[in-house]
Design brief:
This protein is of the alpha/beta class. Among the domains are: 99 residues, no CATH class; 107 residues, Outer Surface Protein A, domain 3. It has 19 helices and 19 strands. The structure holds S-adenosylmethionine. The site of S-adenosylmethionine has 23 residues, from α8, α9 and β7.
């Protein structure tokens, strides 16, 4: 048995999973740990000697424990095996010999349409464990952005996928559930080592390749899918400002995001899709989303770009200086903050947007039907898998975009099961003052409805065609039918794009 296989069996036998740990130390300690506060978890483990408690101490609380304890927790791999693959280091100068984590080994669980899995992700020890600023070649663990992109991944099966900037390998691991061939690249050899370890521990087939951006892709190679949580953080190129490999590719401003976008047409198959996260600058009164759009248009890509957050330069700088482990109020923090503000001022940056990009190489060159650029700031259930929703929206978009208005008028539609209507009345009034259509899943959108659109949606049970409903409504509202159709069809297309309306079968005759 290989050391990795032995480790896997030991971790499985100990039940080193998200759910078991929560059961071991309780929800409050679990939540405290997620906020970076370890004491409650540590207290809950007092006098606990089982394998799960030892693994949690070593890998999640970064305690130093006797070698014999870890040997008991990893009976097949032993401490020596864990040390051989770089997970721990043994201190032979102590009596008894002791062992401490050299890498972070975190359980990770996932439940989606493809079922439930318990995985382990290997990364560098976090800021707390190293107690101070991170190394510039730090390999990031599963952070908020990693989780966001992982949950955005479209779940439909594809032949090939490229994970650009794989880091710990978390995106490649997710992709291995639906892609037959996963290629993971990184500029950091160290990241690839850890991604290889992550993949091996979880028996995921991932090919790793070293190199910058698209360099590791062969000239004739094309992928069905690209996923990337790239090093997009805007960082001043000032002497003394650390350039962390895990978040910064060494370029000026938001140039990295532009470079990734413009390189995509050379690695995607026609119809292939890239999903990535990014930052974009708002410079001198210009809209940041327009800036992204200009790069995407130049690359000839279809796009659905969703801005989720916009920060002013000072808040942006603060976020990323803290992320590097430098505390506010220290002289270093002040120096770095000034460097960030000077850098933004040089380019006239007034804000920085963050969001999700879904980009597609048109199946037919030049045929672009998807060009959505929007700001959506509604809170999203952090555990929700948005990928399935995006896949549904895309499929419906392609269907509706293939229909001209006459064909769409012949279609039958239904209201999505997660959609409800909310009516607001002035006290005592018989007629609503406002009507909203609310989406329970997806992006939790709220769409204000006029009388005609509300009437249209109320009749969408799949029985009557779009055209028949519009015709009936024009009589009911005493409105010109052609004008009503022209008013309603764009709104109907937009509700279809958000999967709030669904293509429905015509009701069976009789
Ligand atoms: C934000 S991390 C993402 C890690 C992981 N994919 C995730 O989602 O958690 C960005 C990764 O890009 C890598 N990287 C930095 N510069 C790069 C470059 N020029 N080309 C390829 N990868 C790069 C970093 O080493 C790091 O692993």
């Amino acid at each position: 048995m290989t050391t990795i296989a032995a480790l896997r069996e030991d971790l499985q036998e100990a039940g080193f999973t998200v759910a078991s740990l929560r059961a071991l130390w309780g929800t409050a300690a679990d939540e405290a740990l997620a906020r970076g506060h370890r004491l409650p978890a540590r207290r809950a483990l007092t006098d606990r000697t089982e394998a799960l408690a030892t693994l949690a101490r070593v890998f999640l609380l970064n305690d130093v424990v006797p070698v014999a304890d870890l040997d008991r927790a990893l009976p097949r791999a032993t401490s020596d095996g864990a040390a051989a693959v770089g997970l721990v280091e043994i201190d032979e100068s102590t009596t008894p010999w002791t062992v401490r984590a050299r890498l972070d080994l975190s359980p990770y669980s996932l439940a989606d349409a493809n079922g439930e899995v318990d995985w382990w992700v290997v990364s560098d020890l976090g800021e707390q464990a190293v107690a101070g600023p991170l190394r510039e070649d730090h390999v990031l663990g599963v952070g908020g952005a990693s989780l966001t992109l992982a949950r955005l991944q479209l779940p439909d099966r594809v032949d090939s996928l490229l994970d650009l900037g794989t880091g710990s390998g978390i995106q490649a691991l997710h992709a291995s559930r639906y892609a037959d061939r996963v290629v993971a690249t990184d500029i950091s050899a160290r990241a690839l080592e850890l991604a290889t370890l992550t993949a091996a521990l979880n028996e995921a087939a991932v090919e790793t390749r070293l190199g910058s951006l698209f360099d590791p892709v062969l000239p004739s190679e094309r992928f069905d899918r690209v996923v990337s949580n790239p090093p997009f953080v805007v960082t001043p190129r000032t002497e003394g400002v650390p350039s962390y490999e895990y978040r910064d590719a060494g370029l000026v401003g938001d140039a990295l995001v532009r470079q990734v976008i413009t390189g995509l047409p050379d690695v995607l198959r026609p119809g292939g899709i890239a999903q990535m996260l990014g930052n974009w600058e708002y410079r001198a009164g210009a809209d940041g989303l327009d800036r992204v759009r200009s790069w995407i248009d130049a690359a000839g890509l279809e796009a659905w770009v969703i801005e989720r957050e916009r920060l002013d330069p000072s808040a942006y700088a603060e976020t990323w200086i803290r992320d590097g482990g430098t505390k506010p109020g220290t002289p270093d923090f002040e120096r770095l903050h000034a460097a960030w503000l000077d850098d933004f001022a040089e380019r006239g940056v007034e804000a920085v947007g963050f969001g999700y990009l879904l980009l597609r190489l048109p199946a037919v060159p030049g045929r672009v039907t998807l060009a959505r650029y929007e700001t959506v700031t509604t809170p999203i259930d952090a555990s929700a898998s948005l990928g399935a929703h995006l896949a549904t929206c895309l499929a419906i978009h392609d269907w509706q975009a293939s229909l001209d208005d006459t064909s769409l008028s012949e279609a039958h539609l239904t209201v999505a099961p997660d959609v409800t209507e909310q009516r607001h009345f002035w006290p005592g009034d018989e007629h609503p003052a406002a009507i909203d259509l609310r989406q329970g899943g997806g992006f939790g959108r709220t769409v204000p409805l006029g009388t005609a659109l509300a009437g249209f949606i109320g009749a969408c049970d799949g029985e009557l065609s779009v055209g028949r409903i519009v015709s009936a409504l024009s009589e009911l509202l005493d409105a010109d039918e052609a004008a009503l159709r022209a008013e309603l069809l764009p709104a109907i297309r937009s509700l279809l794009d958000d999967a709030m309306l669904l293509p429905g079968e015509p009701a069976p005759a009789g």
